[in-house]
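Notes for week 9. Today we move from apo structures to complexes. The key idea is that a small molecule is not decoration. When we ask for a structure prediction with magnesium ion present, the ligand SMILES becomes part of the input, just like the chain. The input block below holds both the sequence and the ligand string. Read it once before you look at the output, and try to guess where the molecule might sit.
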Amino acid sequence: MLELQHIYFSVNTPEGVQHILKDVSIVIPDNKLIVFTGPNGGGKTTLAKIIMGLVQPTSGKVIFNGQDITELNITERAKLGISYGFQQPPRFKGITVHDLLLLSAGAEKLSKDRCCQFLTKVGLCANDYLDREVDVSLSGGEVKRIEIATILARNSSLMIFDEPEAGIDLWSFARLTETFEQIHRSQDATMIIISHQERIIQLADEIVVVAGGEIAHRGSTEEIFPLILANTLGGCPVLSKEEKK
Ligand SMILES: Nc1ncnc2c1ncn2[C@@H]1O[C@H](COP(=O)(O)OP(=O)(O)OP(=O)(O)O)[C@@H](O)[C@H]1O
Ligand SMILES: [Mg+2]
């Protein structure tokens, strides 16, 4: 179980202190698929980075399986079973896709078949990619898919995907949603997926709308999805704090 307790995150800017997250508290039970959605700049990525330990909250606690992990670094959190896929994944010159999968799986050897299984789940063919370097020669969508494959290889108990749909073509995206569904059905991992994508939002056990640095609303897909749709047609009560109050 993951618990965020009164998370605040503020930064000093030339204009003064900017409050990016304001008193975010949430409990995420095991083996759920939770979608964080909401407007650009709402604070979703910051929240994900706080869970992974890439960003330290100004105040508040992150509790994972009963342990206070607020002070733990990324590696320590990874060892506890948390993994995170960047909204814009980094590239690693000199490291091949095979090396990355090996590192992620924490294995000394990974058969081609096994690598192929991970890559197929994100719509890539192992033959074409295993020996490629994860450098600028790969397209944005390819890097994104390779990073998602490395998260799958890590086999973590809490996986955070930051806009997995970004830059991914429709065919690969269909594969990817199938993979999320499969993991969810097998009930052996918790997934937090930051997404604006209808297909992913519809897979969720719960949708959490993050707006203005706060949890503006949370509820089932049936409750929240129509409100999100309404927003695209103009005016969404869940995205507007004023209307909520
Ligand atoms: N270190 C920082 N310094 C200044 N501003 C920051 C910092 N980190 C985040 N922000 C700002 O905080 C806000 C929230 O950013 P965040 O990346 O969490 O949003 P998001 O909900 O993921 O948005 P998107 O949907 O566009 O990915 C943005 O306005 C961003 O510019
Ligand atoms: Mg983001």
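The chain is about 35% helix and 30% strand.
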